[in-house]
Each structure stands twice: as C-alpha cells, then as structure tokens.
Write the structure tokens for this entry.
Amino acid sequence: MTLKLVLMGTGEFAAPTFSALAGGGHEVVALVTQPSRSGPGHHDHANALKEEFLARNIPVWQPADASAPESLDLLAAAEADLFVVAAYGQILKSGLLALPRLGAINVHASLLPRHRGASPIHHAILAGDDETGITIFRIEPRVDTGPVLGRVTTRIGTRETSGDLHDRLALLAVDLAETVVDELAEGTARPQVQDEVLATRAPRLKKADAAVDWSVDAAAIDRRIRAMQPWPNPFTFLHSADEPPRRLIVVDVAAGPPDVSGPPGLVLQAGESGIVVGCGDGSAVITRLQPEGRRVMDAGEFLRGTVVRNGDRMGPIGA
C-alpha cells in the first residue's frame, strides 16, 4: 500500500532519510521545515532541504508554529497517512499528532530510552557510551517516550566527534526509516514499549556547556572536547601574567605523561608536542587548538608565535 507522507525536518540529519523517502515507493505530499532566519544573531544560509524539495516540485511549508490553528488546517488538507519527523526543532502538540491516519514517527539519534532530548549525540559521547544508534518511534505528547518501531546500533569510534557521529547516524537512519514506513503501510509493525527504568536525559546544550573543566580526569576532558565539536566548540582561556585572557578552542587532547601532575588548569609543560595541563587524575596534553580569530593549528605551531610558560593557567575568566 502506498502511503501519503508529510516530512517534517530542518537540519542536515534529516536530509539522507528525506531524500530516500522522496525518491521511494511512497508519495511525499509536503515538506514542513523551520522558517528561514536571518539578521542579528542568525546565520543567513540556504535551507538545503527546502531547495531540494522545491526542485522536486514538492510543496514546502515553513510555519512559525506547526501546531497553530492555521498550520493544522494546512496539514489537515494534505490528508497524509503518516508524518515522518527528523530534527525538526519544534514540539508537536496532540492536535497535530492526531491528524494523520497512522500518526507521526520520529527518527531519533540514540538508542531510546537512553538519551531522550534535543542533544542525544553529544550526550552519548559525554557519557562515554560504547555504542549508540537510531531509534524510530511513534510520537506521543511526552518527549521521546513513544513505542519503538525499529532501531539499529553502531559502535562509537574512540576519536569520533559529535559532528563525525552525526553524519554517520544520518546515513544509518535511511534503511531503517524506509523499513519502518513500509511496515506501517503493510500493517506489520510491532511497537515495543520503552523501559522507563533505563531512561536518561539529553537536554539541549548551551554555549557555556563547552567550557573545559580541568578538574576532571583526562578521559572525561577528551570526551567533552569531542562531544562539543563542531558546536558549541570546546573552549578554555589561557591566563598569563601581565596579559589579558586569551580564548582558545581546544580541538584535541591526549593523556599527559604518567609522571607529570599538578593542580587542575595549571600549565606544567609547553613544547613542540603540546601544552601539558594539570587535571583531575594527573595531566592532559593539548595537541591541537584554535586561537580566537585564527585557524586550527598544532600546539607546537601556536607556541612558536605565543609564549606559554610553566605556571600559566587554563580555565574560566574570573576563576
């Protein structure tokens, strides 16, 4: 049976799945995506999903509030069988979820019920999880709690950033999404209730969450640095005597020498191989970084242009 689908998504995570569904055996009647934003505080850039679907002659709707009465009228007129949601960016209320005959499903980048929320990829790396994956579930009014319709798992690479993992998961979702939509069309889907005992939260990140905490161990520092790339970008401030604090994006770290330790944030050594900084279990070495307003570079290159002395400090302003 061919289904009429409305796809709801905005970010790059949705693109591979939505492209596959648009070119597959079901009828995509509309793409719903977030309004274009420009001006102060926003980056003015093209919405790739919007451009693709307009080129396919599929209607694109960009309501400020998808659950507003006028939006519900527009969606109801589409007479869709199913809404497929991925990285849309709005909470969908019960009136909207009731419109399609088969309800709405969400493509989520974690193994639910672990990491419910807006930032599951970041939180999986922060937590040191060995694996993650894609879960597709039926959307209910409570966030990320609906019955699971399918899942696929993958190992998290030891050096993967959130950006790396995001791109892999976006591709991993494609086959699963097509399978789940086909099973709903055929009436063979077997929903599984989530185990609430296993639920964890993955709340939306703030820029402040990217500050490096030198008081934890080197492994936790490494996880935060990988989790916060490419956004909100892990940072610290270099405090040197008689110099204003310098903001540094920390791109890569390694465990420090086993015989070198000191107070958290204290610069213990600085040389061609990196900047050794005291942390919770000894030391960590900053091997790559990006000074504010400059490109990413190895620590050795940075030190050839910037004096960093033993006894300087890494940490927040005012600490």
Observations:
- The first strand starts at residue 4 and ends at 9.
- The chain has eight helices and 14 strands.
